[in-house]
């Protein structure tokens, strides 16, 4: 892109003290969210690792979201493979958290409408789409790995997609389209700014 469209919060400042206070509050909250997403980015892979590392010690309540029911101890070879498979959607989540960190970092700097903002929204839309694809791939793989040591006829292959994942996919597509519209609006504004 050979254009640069940048608006800051200050561009909308009309001198109203209340508006100034709101803008400062937005920047402050954005700064806190930036740091929160930074912490979550670091914690996400650690949580996935600890989950599978201590899987055999977990109570049944922590195993509800798995594609298969388990009531036996699993060998560490199985847990290692399960960790790698789980890291597929985990990596997508980390990508999304890094993108959110960048987006709110822009808001913290009072940049609300720029090419970088547009790119962040596009990446967030792609993150939602990638998340659905990663879940669709990881669920059958995880079910196979977790039941691999079962006797023949007792192994499970779980397939399917839930209504929440369909909603996530549609939301991702909508966000990508919105980012496309924002990108075109940014181009249009840049062209008008240079029109004499």
What are the salient characteristics of this protein?
single chain, 196 residues, mainly alpha, two-stranded antiparallel sheet
User: What topology, given as strand order, has the largest sheet?
Assistant: 1-2
Percent strand: under 5%
Q: What form results from the Cα inertia axes? A: elongated
Supply the helix-strand structural class.
Answer: mainly alpha
Number of helices: 4
Q: Helix fraction?
A: 55-70%
Radius of gyration of CA atoms, rounded to a whole number: 22 Å
Low-confidence stretches: none
Give a count of the beta strands, DSSP E runs of length 2 or more. 2
Overall pLDDT score: 84
Topology pattern, helix = H, strand = E = EHHEHH
Please describe what this structure looks like.
It is built from four helices and two strands; from the N terminus they run E-H-H-E-H-H. It is an all-alpha fold. Strands 1-2 form a two-stranded antiparallel ribbon.
Describe the protein's topology:
Layout: E1 7-8, H1 17-53, H2 76-108, E2 111-113, H3 115-146, H4 163-193
Antiparallel strand pairs: 1-2
In short:
With 196 residues, this protein is an all-alpha fold. Helices cover 68% and strands 3% of the residues.
